């Protein structure tokens, strides 16, 4: 596979950091971006210490100015965009602060459109591009108390399908990977939030809410998501576009 320049959002921790490290280990140059520059730098430093190629940049996907500044500062053009930045808030809609609701939509839906819009002209000019959106099982199903997250992740699928049609005239693809729970700091916080909201123990949240719907009954790993992303950006997947890659341990086949 040809070495690519890959920009990963929300790569200062969790899924983004795992995918960045995994793709760097495959020989790609990784652009580690995060709202927290120190976190992005730590991930990039670790990649370089392991022999990989990486650079770090601050990026707020809710800001036009931040996106423009980040793209202008890059050492090389973006061949692959991995839209991963995300956050969660667990609350009944009646108690859900609308400002927080809007923030989730801005980061996980509008922010995806903003950054995709920024990199598409360069991809078209070079005649190649791959966009991988990190969705969720909640792109496909719903859970109580996650109205903003579920709305954003559902919207991501529609956005990806439209962009697949708009980029079908060149060698650009866009797909959405939809995993169930991955053990990350974000999920650890969700466990605590769900325990409080549902008035059950954290172990019950894991067994009864997170893993029970999955016949496989295990958390998804960074290695799985890295491998799927690597496939989607490779030559064997050049005609896979606008698709939803569901990684759910059998959840939605029931």
Automatic annotation (TrEMBL):
Segments crossing the lipid bilayer: none
Sorted UniProt keywords: Oxidoreductase
Gene Ontology BP term (one): monocarboxylic acid metabolic process
UniProt cross-references to Pfam families, sorted A to Z: adh_short
UniProt keyword Oxidoreductase present: yes
EC number(s) stated in the UniProt entry for this protein: 1.1.1.30
SUPFAM superfamilies listed in its UniProt record: NAD(P)-binding Rossmann-fold domains
GO molecular function term, any single one: 3-hydroxybutyrate dehydrogenase activity
Keyword Protease: no
Family to which this protein belongs: Belongs to the short-chain dehydrogenases/reductases (SDR) family.
PANTHER family tied to this protein: 3-OXOACYL-(ACYL-CARRIER-PROTEIN) REDUCTASE, 3-OXOACYL-[ACYL-CARRIER-PROTEIN] REDUCTASE FABG
Name by which UniProt lists this protein: 3-hydroxybutyrate dehydrogenase
Gene source species: Chiayiivirga flava
């Amino acid at each position: 596979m040809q070495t690519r320049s890959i920009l990963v959002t929300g790569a200062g921790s969790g899924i983004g950091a795992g995918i960045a490290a995994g793709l760097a280990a495959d020989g790609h140059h990784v652009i580690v971006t995060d709202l927290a520059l120190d976190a992005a730098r730590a991930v990039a430093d670790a990649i370089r210490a392991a022999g990989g190629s990486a650079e770090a940049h601050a990026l707020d996907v809710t800001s036009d100015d931040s996106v423009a500044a980040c793209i202008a500062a890059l050492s090389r053009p973006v061949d692959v965009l991995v839209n991963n930045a995300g956050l969660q808030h667990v609350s009944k809609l009646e108690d859900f602060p609308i400002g927080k609701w809007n923030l989730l939509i801005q980061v996980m839906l509008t922010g995806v459109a903003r950054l995709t819009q920024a990199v598409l002209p360069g991809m078209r000019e070079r005649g190649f591009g791959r966009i991988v959106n990190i969705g969720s099982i909640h792109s496909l199903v719903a859970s109580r108390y996650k109205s903003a997250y579920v709305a954003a992740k559902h919207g991501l699928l529609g956005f990806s399908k439209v962009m697949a049609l708009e980029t079908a005239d060149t060698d650009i693809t866009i797909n959405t990977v939809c995993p169930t729970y991955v053990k990350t700091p974000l999920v650890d916080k969700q466990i605590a939030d769900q325990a409080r909201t549902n008035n059950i123990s954290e172990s019950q949240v894991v067994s009864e809410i997170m893993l029970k719907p999955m016949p496989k009954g295990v958390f998804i790993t960074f290695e799985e998501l890295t491998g799927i992303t690597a496939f989607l950006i490779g030559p064997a997947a050049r005609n896979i576009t606008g698709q939803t890659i569901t990684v759910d341990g059998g959840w939605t086949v029931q």
